[in-house]
Amino acid sequence: MLICDLTQSYAPVGGGGVSTYLREKRRYILEQTGHRLIQIVPGPEDRVVESGRHIWVEVGAEQVRGSPNYRFILRTGAVREVLEHFRPDVIESLCPWVLPWTAINYRRAHPETALVAGYHTDFPNVHIHRVGEQLFGRRMADGLRSIGVAYAQKTYGAFDRLYALNDPVRDQLAQWGIGHVDVLSLGVDTDQFSPARRDPHFREKLGLAGHGPLLIYAGRIDNEKRAHRLVEMFRRLPPEMGAAMVMLGDGKLRDRLIRETRGLAVALPGFVDDRDALAVALASSDIYVSAMADETFGISVIEAQASGLPVVGVASGAMPARVPMGLGRLGPVDDAAAMADHVQALWRGDYRAMGAAARNHVVQRFSWNKTFAQLVNEVYPAAMMRALERRSAVYRWAEHRLPELVRSVG
User: Which residues are in the Glycosyltransferase subfamily 4-like N-terminal domain (predicted)?
Assistant: First the structure.
């Protein structure tokens, strides 16, 4: 069959979990199945690249204001033309804005098409409520979130199948009346992300002084990821600890944080697009740190754990599921002091043993092959069955009602 990925949440540089997902899915489909795959993403201009069973489509789109790497497709007609030309059997939507309705409208014209949605971002809480509270206060933000929930109900109710990345999000969706939801864990390449990739000279290459722990973060340097909280945490570490920190990634806060960390043992070298280089960076560090409160899964966390690192984070979102007892320390959201205390506690303890336990935890539970085998062999067939049932219901209605309607017109 021809499978279609459709998303706004892609960036060639600085991309997050969805960009990783698209890359790993392409590998799985081409290496492990006989299916074809078309992936439609935003780009600087219209572009179609066909290579065997893979079709890469970029739809020209303007950059998102304040985000140096992301673009937002408004030309839904161009997306519809691509769908009409290639006629996918399954469309998987990986973002909540605009494009899901392009898929829904296409399915109305082609009812045999099955629609699947991946709930990769908890947008009513992460985007709508968080930003609304900052701009307008809690009461207005609550009202805006209610509108976002209503939009989610309307949008995802039109899909044949939906998957969430953890059980709490599935339960939340169920509370909103969205019940046709599977839970799909994401994965990590444990051969690529491994303690064996450690470079003893990595810290020296970054020009970071100090004899204590090397902390590392990998992700967008922006408000959503709360990257500035990591700098606040670092300032609270005692100087005699000799800590250093590297923050890998790009985003609208990066320039500001570079200015604010002058004189500190903190490096912000930018986005690392070489996955092997990222693996080396993680394996060459000591503790992974993240202040993100709204992770729906946390690919960067399990990549760090696979590299043998304990994690210091916050007890919110998917983080408690990623970092169970014994694999790190979690504290309150936006509490830089608690995070600093946790870093010191790990460093004083047997952090290497904790990191080894974290790797073992990931090796036993997370695999991209397992992720996409479940998607292709369970989620997609369930969606296709529902599409078939939907078409059958239409045919049954037509069989019983059309003769009556014809007689009434006659």
Answer: 16-192
Residue 55 has a pLDDT of 98
pLDDT 10s digits, 231-269: 999 999 999 999 999 999 998 899 999 999 999 999 999
Q: Is 68 exposed, middle or buried, given 0-12, 13-18 or 19+ CB atoms closer than 10 A? A: middle
Q: How would residue 78 be classed by pLDDT, with cut points 50, 70 and 90?
A: very high
Q: Are 277 and 247 in contact (CB under 8 A)?
A: no
CATH number for 195-364 (one of 3.30.420.40, 3.40.50.2000, 3.40.190.10, 3.40.50.620): it is 3.40.50.2000
Please report which helix (H) or strand (E) contains residue 339, including its range.
helix 336-348
Residue with tokens 């809690």: 138
> For all residues of the chain together, what is the average pLDDT?
92
Comparing CA positions, the residue from 161, 277, 138 lying closest to residue 218 is: 277
Q: Which two tokens stand for residue 127?
A: 């985007």
Round to whole Å and give the CA distance between 83 and 270: 35
C-alpha distance from residue 76 to each of 185, 201, 225, 324 (Å):
30, 49, 29, 42
Count of C-beta atoms within a 10 Å radius of residue 363: 14
- CA angle at 158 for the pair 157 and 162, rounded to the nearest 5°: 65
Q: What is the predicted pLDDT for the residue at 394? A: 60
**Closest alpha carbon to 319 in 180, 190, 169, 214:** 169
How far, in Å, CA of 226 to CA of 290, rounded? 8
DSSP of 256-309: HHHHHTTTSSEEEEE----HHHHHHHHHT-SEEE---S--SS-HHHHHHHHTT-
Q: Residue 82 is which amino acid?
A: V
**Which carries the bigger pLDDT value, residue 136 or residue 396?**
136
Q: Where are the domains of the chain?
A: 2-187+367-401, 195-364
User: Which of the four pLDDT bands, split at 50, 70 and 90, describes residue 128?
Assistant: confident
Tens of pLDDT, residue by residue over 138-157, are 899 889 999 999 999 999 99
CATH node for 2-187+367-401: 3.40.50.2000
Tokens of 364: 């036993």
